Every structure is written in C-alpha cells, then in structure tokens.
Amino acid sequence: MMKKLEKTVNYIKDKIDFIPEIAIILGSGLGNLADYIENKTEISYELIPNFPETTVVGHDGKLIFGELNNRKIVAMKGRFHYYEGNDMSEVIYPIRVFKLLGIQNLIVTNAAGGVNTDFVPGDLMLITDHLSFFCENPLRGENLDQLGPRFPDMSVAYDKKLRDIAIASARNLGIDLKSGIYCYCKGPSFEAPAEIRALRALGADAVGMSTVPETITARHMGMRVLGISCITNMAAGILEQPLNHEEVIETGKQVSQKFSTLVSDITKNWE
C-alpha cells in the first residue's frame, strides 16, 4: 500500500509547485466552490496513478489545486463511496495521499438527509460528532504504522477550534449554521423510516453515505478535520414524498452560493 501511495504522491508533486494547507472534499451538488479557487491546476482522477474513479452524478472527478482567500488549497471535486463497489481502502485513498503530500487540515462536506425535524432542506449543519458503528471501519486490516497508531482516539474527531471559526464566520455572514451529529450509513438505498426513527433516538441530526470514513482516516494520521453537511432533503418518514438523488443534487445547487461563501470565509480566518 505504501508503494502505491508513494507513486500517486510523486505524480502529483510533479504537477504542482506548493504544498496545500487545506484539503476540501466537495459533496454532491456542492462543487461550485471550485469557481472561487484562483490560479488553478486541475488533475483528472483518471490520470492519477492508483486513484479510483467516481461514478456518481454530481461528482466530477478531479483535484483542483490553487488559492482560496490566499490560502493554498486542494479541492476534491468528486469523492469515492463504499456503495459504488469500492473497497474501503479506495474510499479513503485520497486522504492518505493528502497527508503524504504534507497537508495537515481537511474540510469534509456532504449532502445529507435531515433527521432532526427542526431542520429544513437548504440548512447547513456543522458536524460536532458522528455515528458509524453500523459500518465497516476504514482502518480494518493491517495497520500502516507509518501513518498512525493501531487504535486512534476519536474523542474529538471534529476540531473544536475549527468549529469555533466556522461558527464565527457564519455569524459574520448572517448564515444560520445549525450544528449536530452526522450518522454514516453505507447506502446506496436511502434509509427506511424505522431506521430514521432509530437514528433519531440515538441522537443523529443528519444522515448520509460518506464523510465518516474520511474523517476517521484523517484523524488516524493526526490531521485536523472540519465537517459541514448540507441538508438537501428530509430523511425518510418525515415528509410524505419519496426520496431521490435528483432532489439531493438540485438542493445542493440551490444552496451552493451560501455554502461556498461560508467555506471561503472559513479558510480566510483559518488558524
């Protein structure tokens, strides 16, 4: 695995002339943040050795290196999901590449279903913690000691200082930023109403099919993580209409301006 990672890292290093400070993973329908990036260098996934390919509508499949508010960043426009048939090692592969490139900070974003009945589609939620014990852990198998410990601590998976910066940015911009617990489910089927009732009883505020494997992997390697969910639909059983991915993409597009403005401001105030 380390040899594969090194080959990927060396290829990317040949294409860029700086080490990004922050990596940003863009969720479904949230790719418009890429329009804010200046001095771009774009690399298609299909050109990167050992990189998986994304198959989901709303995920373009490229790394965008550049500047956002004078911060050196890389945006991942298109992520890899377990439900696509990827091994978990493929889902988290880019995060390990980012760390080996020298990146210390990760912003994970996603489109999520609202479990908290006080939420409405279009809300943004700051992730304070997560639930994932239904799903395969991305660190299962032989530990890569070069990257992190066998049993990493998840007491504070989402960095408190970065959350405070996000809250301050939202306040200054007049954005009503919710906060809550994100539950990771494998997908690709949306959750059943009974499952949503169970998740609500467990304390979940939002549910989705990504983010947690990437967060666990980043924390395993000592990276700081900030997580933001875009509530694109209410979870099953809350409203009468059935769920579909088209609604997820459409709502993501509708709030992309608000989302991009917030993330851009967060990077400006990053510490």
Please tell me about this protein's structure.
It is a single chain. This protein has 271 residues and is of the alpha/beta class. The chain has a single domain, classed as Rossmann fold (3-Layer(aba) Sandwich), CATH 3.40.50. Helices cover 30% and strands 24% of the residues. The chain contains 8 helices and 9 strands. The chain has helices at 2-13, 88-91, 93-101, 160-173, 193-202, 212-220, 245-254, 256-268, and strands at residues 22-26, 38-44, 62-68, 71-77, 105-114, 124-131, 177-184, 206-208, 224-234. The protein has a 5-stranded mixed barrel with strand order 5-8-7-6-9. Strand 6 (124-131), helix 4 and strand 7 form a beta-alpha-beta unit. The longest helix is centred in the middle third of the chain and has 14 residues, at 160-173. The chain is globular.
In the CATH scheme, what's the topology name?
Rossmann fold
Query: Would you report the number of β strands?
Result: 9
Question: CATH superfamily, please?
Answer: Nucleoside phosphorylase domain
Beta-strand proportion:
15-25%
- Listing every helix as H and every strand as E from the N terminus to the C terminus, the arrangement reads HEEEEHHEEHEHEHEHH
CATH class: Alpha Beta
Report the CATH architecture: 3-Layer(aba) Sandwich
The rounded Rg comes to: 17 Å
Judged by helices, strands and strand pairing, the structural class is alpha/beta
Strand order of the largest sheet: 5-8-7-6-9
**Molecular shape:** globular
Count of helical regions:
8
Helix percent band: 25-40%
Largest pleated sheet: 5 strands, mixed, barrel
Tally of structural domains: 1
Low-confidence stretches: none
Question: How far apart lie the N and C ends?
Answer: 32 Å
- Overall pLDDT, averaged? 92
